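Translate structure to sequence.
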C-alpha cells in the first residue's frame, strides 16, 4: 500500500510489544498525563451537555473542533490500561451522539446559505 501511494521510501514502520518490566499502569502514567486528558474530557462533557448554540453550523463546527483538539492529547489506550470509570469513553459517546443529532441540521443550513442567488 505504501509503495502504491509512492511513499514507501519515506515511511517509518514500527512494531512494539511489551515483554517485561514494571507494571503497565505505571508506564502509562509516566508516558501520558492522564489526569490532564481526563480534565479535557470533563470540560468537553460539560460544554456539550449544556444548551447548544442556536446556529446549527456553529454547533457542529464547535463540537468537531473541540473533539479534534482532545484527540491530539488522548493516547486512545486500551480499556485495560485506563483508570476505572474513564471519562473519555463517556465523552466519545457524547461526541458521536451529538454529532449524529446535530449534523443533519448543519448540512441543511449550509446547503441553504451556500446556494447561489438566481
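Result:
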Amino acid at each position: 500500500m505504501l509503495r502504491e501511494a509512492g511513499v514507501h521510501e519515506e515511511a517509518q514502520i514500527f512494531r512494539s510489544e511489551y515483554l517485561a518490566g514494571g507494571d503497565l499502569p505505571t508506564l502509562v502514567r509516566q508516558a501520558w498525563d492522564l489526569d490532564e486528558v481526563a480534565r479535557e474530557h470533563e470540560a468537553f462533557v460539560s460544554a456539550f451537555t449544556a444548551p447548544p448554540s442556536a446556529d446549527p453550523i456553529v454547533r457542529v463546527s464547535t463540537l468537531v473542533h473541540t473533539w479534534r483538539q482532545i484527540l491530539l492529547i488522548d493516547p486512545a489506550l486500551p480499556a485495560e490500561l485506563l483508570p476505572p470509570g474513564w471519562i473519555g469513553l463517556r465523552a466519545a459517546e457524547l461526541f458521536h451522539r451529538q454529532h449524529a443529532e446535530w449534523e443533519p441540521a448543519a448540512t441543511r443550513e449550509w446547503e441553504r446559505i451556500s446556494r447561489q442567488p438566481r
